[in-house]
Amino acid sequence: MTTRVPAPLLALAAMVSVQLGAAIAKTRFDEVGSVGAATLRLVIGALVLALVVRPRVRHWTRAQWTAAVLLGLALGGMNVFIYVAFATIPIGVAVTIEFLGPLVLSLAHTRRWRDVSWAVLALAGVVLLGVGPTAVTAVAGVAAAVAAAVCWAGYIVMNQRVGAAIPGIDGLALSMVVAMLVSLPFGLHSAVAGVVDDPTLLLVFAGVALLSSVLPYALEMAALRRMVTRVFGVLQSLGPAIAALAGLLVLREALSVQEVVALACVTAASIGVTLSGRRRRAVP
Questions:
Q1: Alpha carbon separation from 275 to 37, 80, 272, 280, 281 (Å, rounded)
Q2: Angle of helix 215-224 versus helix 229-236 axis, rounded to 10
Q3: In this predicted model, what pLDDT tens digit does every residue of 237-254 receive, in sequence order?
Q4: Residue 165 in this model has a pLDDT that exceeds 80
């Protein structure tokens, strides 16, 4: 079925699915709290993935275990911190700040002065967010989004190592279990209390886990089989804009003009770095 759909549309659908799941999860923060929501998503996602994949870990080496555990720590931190950020700042702003993680990681590997312009553009976006009304009134949320950005950068690095060290998606399945364990001490109580009061929350967060984890992974995997990674990277750069749109439609979170300009700066810088990086790798 997915072979009939253009690959770029699959990649865009994956991003829309992720941000829609996040927006839906935020609508239930009053019942389970932000960390409780992250915990429910991770628990359901980890259990489903573990049951489907059934990772064969018996003969793993110490290096394979280390890589998978470190990936899980990064994944757990990324999910918990970004949900904490969602609780106090708009989703569009939080995802824009979080997106600085992979952007800075890309810039750290550059050796060309031309790419400095993209760093300056991204810095302009950071400054605009830093002096905007959201940053002034919700310092904790901004700090949580920055922590999520750091975890996202770590997730990218460790995901590459896990992919190289462990065949298939067995490493990802175990990493999801580790991420779940990371969240349990902080969100188990509020998650259980919310579910006891309203058992239908299990269905809601099963949908969130599907939208935020299972479906995007399947769509991205199908897209990457039929498109070059340069185009995929450019499309991924639209994440902050899609997050802002999801926040507006689902949560009525309107961004200020200053925040929209900041979002545009970070998105443009990410696209520029992606295109520049792919061109460099194409040169013999």
A1: 36, 31, 5, 9, 10
A2: 140
A3: 888 889 999 999 999 998
A4: yes
Burial 5-44 (b: 16+ CB within 10 A, else e): eebeebbbbbbbbbbbbbbbbbebbebbbbbbbbbbbbbb
Among 184, 234, 252, residue whose Cα is nearest residue 11: 234
CA dist., res. 47 & res. 181, Å (int): 12
Number of other residues whose CB lies within 10 A of the CB of residue 164: 10
Rounded Cα distance between 274 and 224, Å, is: 16
Residue 178: pLDDT above 80? yes
- pLDDT tens figures, 9-51: 888 898 899 999 999 999 999 999 999 999 999 999 899 888 8
Residue 195 neighbours by CB under 8 Å, 6+ apart? 32, 40, 201, 202
